[in-house]
Design goal:
337 residues; 2 helices; 16 strands
């Protein structure tokens, strides 16, 4: 596996086995190089006001089952780990000189995904006051190898570090798969590369960055209500920077079936038609993109189906080669209010 990206682990399955991913989720979108220079991004909505705490998505067909579990946590700023960029290694190169939270709190988005025998955990630390990424780490574990990739964000640079698990990998699952670890940080793994990336000059200096997975809570929190409403943000993927607009295209009725857990722990099953907001995800590469933009392993055209009442993303639609249009559907949600 030459590198890792913020894709579903099914991409890792393709690189490792060449069996399942090609038939499910793969990157086929030709990335646009156009950038609307005159347009500007607006201030981000308050992610702490998102009405859900966790989401579960799944999809199954004759090749394999795919699932993702996404959770949001509010943490004290002091809990930001040195993580994938330890102070003792590479400090002379500036690897540990990243942003610190501007306030006393930060948000952690944690996503666990599985496809066939491949699993991964993504951890994203976000500063809601400065409206930008602090750090992002991903650990992917497969039958033959386990690898990690971490990013630490500075004012004008991004440090990227890649690590590999020592030894032959073996069949044993790492601690995070067993539920023992809270974040994807593996400081004891061997460093395979460490590089400094430059933030493109085309991105305004005062514009924050988000990751693709943060688009889900952003869509929930943004003032997206009627056709034409939009929210634009700058997104850093594993290889590229994009200017992404979330735009309401209209409404449609879809059938849903998922488990809803309230704040008091009571659970009920939601089944039936829901009139949803159809939100287009419109990425434009800042410069020349090396990889297409993807969300939950799917490439464009991408859509989020948003429940206007609960603000829960009920499904994510995208394209897959040889399969065409497909979607990940919500199977569980824990509400935050």
């Amino acid at each position: 596996m030459a590198h890792m990206s913020e894709h579903h682990p099914l991409f890792a399955a393709r690189r490792r086995t060449g069996l399942l991913a090609a038939a499910l989720f793969a990157s086929v979108l030709g990335a646009s190089s156009a950038l609307a220079d005159a347009a500007s991004t607006s201030s981000l909505p308050d992610l702490k006001a998102v009405g859900w705490q966790s989401l579960g998505y799944s999809r199954a067909n004759i090749w394999a089952s795919v699932s993702s579990r996404i959770a949001l946590h509010e943490l004290p700023a002091s809990s930001l780990p040195a993580g994938g960029l330890p102070q003792g290694q590479g400090a002379s190169q500036g690897a540990s000189q990243g942003l610190s939270p501007a306030g006393g709190q930060m948000l952690l988005l944690q996503a666990d995904s599985q496809a066939a025998s491949n699993r991964e955990r993504l951890s994203v630390w976000f500063d809601p006051l400065a409206e930008t990424l602090l750090q992002r780490c991903r650990v992917a574990y497969g039958r033959s190898d386990s690898r990690a990739q971490c990013y630490r964000y500075g004012d004008a640079t991004v440090w990227r570090e890649r690590r590999e698990r020592s030894g032959n990998g073996g069949p044993d699952e790492p601690e995070w798969v067993q539920g023992g670890a809270k974040t994807a940080v593996v400081p004891d793994w061997t460093v395979s590369s460490r590089v400094r990336l430059s933030r493109p000059a085309a991105i305004p200096a005062d514009a924050g960055l988000v990751s693709p997975m943060l688009l889900l809570p952003l869509a929930s929190a943004a003032p997206l209500e009627t056709r034409g409403d939009s929210q634009t943000v700058y997104v850093h993927t594993d290889q590229d920077f994009f200017r992404v607009t979330l735009r309401v295209q209209g409404r449609e009725t879809v059938d849903v079936e998922y488990r809803q857990t309230a704040m008091d722990g009571t659970t009920r099953k939601i089944v039936g038609p829901v009139r949803v907001l159809v939100v287009e995800v419109e990425p434009h590469a800042v410069g020349t993109a090396r990889e297409p933009f993807t969300l939950l392993g799917m490439s464009g055209p991408l859509q989020l189906l948003l429940d206007p009442a609960t603000r829960v993303p009920l499904a994510v639609r995208g394209e897959a080669p040889w399969v065409g249009a497909t979607e990940l559907r919500l199977d569980s949600v824990r509400l935050a209010r």
